[in-house]
Amino acid sequence: MGDKGEDKFTSISWNDALGEIADRFEKDTLSYGSESVWPYYYGGTMGYFQRDGINKLRHTMKYSEMDKTICASIVGSGWKAGVGASIGTSPYEMAEADLIILWGTNAVSTQVNVMQHITKARKKRGAKLIVIDPYKNQSALSADKHICINPGTDGALALSMMNVLLRENLVDRNFLNYNTDYNEKLDKIISERNCKWGESITGIPEEEIESLALEYGKTDRAFIRLGYGFSRHRNGAAAVHSVSCLPSLTGKWFNNGGGALLSNYDIYHLDRTLIEGLEKRDESIRILDMSQIGRVLNNYKKELKCGPIVKSMIIQNSNPMVVAPEHNLVKSGLSRKDLFVCVHDQFLTETARLANIVLPATTFFEHDDIYAGGGHSFLQYGEKIIDPVGQSKSNYDVITGLGNLLAPGDPGFKIPLDDLIDETLCISGYPSLDDFKKLKWVNCQPEKNTSDFKNGFFTSDKKFHFFPDWSKIGPAGYLMNNYPDHLNLMDKVNLEQPFRLVTAPARSFLNSTFTETKSSRRKEVKPQVLLHSAVAKKYNIHDDQIIKIGNNLGEITIHSKIFDGLNENVLVVESLWPNRFFIGGKGINVLTSADPVPPNGGAPFHDTSVWIKTSL
């Protein structure tokens, strides 16, 4: 029972814990208004019912809303600008491709299903795999060719490829005229983006850009699998849109084994009304940006939307002390003595260590849920395998427990989970829960004419949009140009901060939950910064030397690792290691910014300029 962060916790009963949380939420609501309470969550638990049920409490009690920007808002905005929805070519068509381009995704480490399709294509058709990424990661090592690109310049590469495709007449005029909003303005824009221009931005030799474009243009069955990584820059949405223009310029959407895919999430039609209490949502309640948690908790007026300061929180499925940008602000905010924090988690994370009350949470082995995936097409029932360990409780049990204290008599918090799942499946047009328990999953993959867009794209005119109106896609769309673009909004490199930092996930750390397991940490050894041998020579750095990297947000101390699988102006720190494993206790997100990416916000985790210092 000491100060936050001292680990001086004492045990209390579940009833006492929930009672204290409810009492504090009620007290703050009376003193500061309901918006002073901010439920915070994300994807540590991925099922619909256990993850999103926290919103039922939020909407019922009129607590502050949360803008879920930390992962998919940038990439989703960029993809939907052209396509209109989070849907693409069937993932299973990758197995029918002759050329597969992994663009900004390390599928070997993060998407086993993608590599299965690629393996089939290689064995069956002799398909070629090209990986476009700022460093030679595990996917690049498995590829036939690695295109080593400067971070944040993917839009420029796509534009230079389009320049070659137009010049060599490797475009599908019929597709352009009938299935897109193409006009001659596009030719003019692209004609100014030749390979020499592309080389000056991307760092890729112009002959390599030319070769890539010709190979893509001449291969009918060319499949682009986009990842989220290259969207995490200040120009990320524009870059994703530019890459999505490639199969539209060439008409490859209609080719078997051709096209592109980012995510399939919009193929699922699970009605979330009962899960999240959407019928009680009040649109006048402010929406706080989860990526800007540091600024919010340090009472920045703009980020607070000029509303009351946040006085109490419940945090589920997220570890902002490790995963959120601007770590120094996050830590000072969560450390506020006047801020009450309850953390419900499977581990005593660094966020939990700053909580007033910590509640033990179940894993997916210990609770029932319904799951979907963006890289496949199956809605799945995940039945619990074991009973909850120790005193752990599921998210659903905690939220309904609090709901019954805060809103006694509300039927939304009294419905058993099985009944809620069954009713939700029913109103969504899916089989009953009893049927799901037998089936285990339902394949939701649309018919081929839908996923190939022969029935039209998901835009208002059913055409692919080369010229999206970004102002209709998000509030900061006015910062963007309404055509395929390399948007020059990046964090500037200069003499003081000459390097671009990429904070890619380590192979064993898919999310911060894995960093709490000894086996995962053992595989990754320790935090290290990858730097080119030419940089090591210039700064007189040897392998495993302790150095500092930093910028205007702060600095960290870290071991060096000489690695020539990146460009000389690039540094890579594979993370997310908890802060306590860095020398000095400050981790990589000390250096990353929470500046919102247009048009819809999101954190530019890979858009960070830094310096190197060898004197400690």
What's this, in brief?
This protein has 616 residues and is α/β, with parallel strands linked by helices. It has 24 helices and 20 strands.
Write the SSE topology.
Blueprint: H1 14-32, E1 37-41, H2 48-52, H3 54-61, E2 65-67, H4 73-82, E3 99-103, H5 107-110, H6 112-125, E4 128-133, H7 138-142, E5 145-148, H8 154-167, H9 173-179, H10 184-191, H11 195-202, H12 206-218, E6 222-226, H13 236-250, E7 259-261, H14 273-276, E8 287-289, H15 293-297, E9 312-316, H16 320-323, H17 327-334, E10 340-345, E11 357-360, E12 369-371, E13 378-382, H18 395-406, H19 417-427, H20 433-439, E14 441-443, H21 448-451, H22 470-473, E15 499-502, H23 518-524, E16 528-531, H24 533-539, E17 546-551, E18 554-562, E19 570-573, E20 608-613
Parallel strand pairs: 1-9, 2-8, 3-4, 3-6, 4-5, 6-7, 9-10, 10-11, 15-19, 16-18
Antiparallel strand pairs: 12-13, 13-14, 15-20, 16-19, 17-18, 17-20
Helix pairs in contact: 1-18, 3-18, 4-13, 8-11, 8-12, 8-13, 11-12
